Amino acid sequence: MTSPAPAISDLSYEQARDELIRVVNELEQGSSTLEQSLALWERGEALARRCEEWLIGAKARLDAARLAATAPTTEDAAPTR
């Protein structure tokens, strides 16, 4: 008996990506019933959304880091009189 699949919201990017690859491979084999295929498709869609959430978050962090790196510091600011 297999254990239930973990909640998608608990998966890291790598876990979601790896499971998505497994889902796609299983769907491509075409050996599942229609009901199993639909369940796999739905899980695959949710996994793809989870991966996208991780990537959007990573991009936001990179953008923030770049902005912080290019922002003038108090030492760079012109003296006020």
UniProtKB/TrEMBL annotation:
MF-aspect GO terms: exodeoxyribonuclease VII activity
Q: What is its EC number?
A: 3.1.11.6
- Tell where it localizes: Cytoplasm
User: Gene3D superfamilies, from UniProt?
Assistant: Exonuclease VII, small subunit
The protein's job, in short, is:
Bidirectionally degrades single-stranded DNA into large acid-insoluble oligonucleotides, which are then degraded further into small acid-soluble oligonucleotides.
Q: Which HAMAP family match?
A: Exonuc_7_S (MF_00337)
Name under which the protein is recorded:
Exodeoxyribonuclease 7 small subunit
